[in-house]
Amino acid sequence: MTDTKQMSESIPIYMILALSGGCMDAYSYLNRGRVFANAQTGNMLLFGVNCADRNISDALRYLWPVLAFAAGIMLSDLIRYKIQPQRLHWRQFSVMLEMAVLFLVCWLPQDLNSPANVLTSFVCGLQVESFRSVHGNAMATTMCIGNLRSGTYYLGQYFRNRNAAWIRKAALYYGMILFFVLGAVAESFLIRLFAEKAILLSVSLLMTAFLLMLSHPDTPSPRRS
Fold it and tell me: Whole-structure pTM over 0.85, yes or no?
């Protein structure tokens, strides 16, 4: 069953997280050696290409973030089922961990880009699994392809039957894509000014989401939403 009226499933929270998701991907790609934090399909592609070229060192550079992303997903499930909070919802624990890891990343120099990308991808995996739906609609905050598919599907439904509900759903998905892109744009400007410290924008966005959830607490529940 699905939890109802959860702040952590609200549109404002997902918009903030989508901004943060765009920041993380731009940060890892532009400032940490052209490796994706979120787009693991791209990393797998580059892993395969480098394997074909027998460039094992570069192949591993793209493989570790994929494994870290998977580890983040697994940890999210562990937090979900093992932690029984008294005052904080389990998703707030996930966000706190995200903030702590990204704060560490901002202090890693350029010669530690590989660990920085691994940690950032880990955070992305944690986020994508912890925040999966808005009011029952499957939604991603760290990637766009699923949102693009869903938004386009609902747009097509609207053109077929002119039901306003479909266009609202399409707008929701396209809006998340827009916020992801805006996060990437903002991060690209900050990288020019602050280099490794630019990821603190993502930390500040996560802190905003955390405080919003703290001010409007979810009802703790052992059920997956």
Answer: yes
The answer to whether 21 touches 183, Cβ cutoff 8 Å, is yes
27 Cβ contact list (under 8 Å, min separation 6): 37, 120, 187, 191, 198, 199, 202
Q: Which amino acid is it at 62? A: Y
d(CA 216, CA 178): 25
pLDDT digits 0-9 by tens, 17-55: 999 999 999 999 999 999 999 889 999 999 999 999 999
223's tokens = 């059920």
Instruction: Supply the DSSP string of 62-113, one letter for each residue.
Output: HHHHHHHHHHHHHHHHHHHHH---SSS-HHHHHHHHHHHHHHHHTT--GGGH
**CB 104, CB 116: distance < 8 Å:** no
C-alpha–C-alpha distance, residues 139 and 172, integer Å: 9
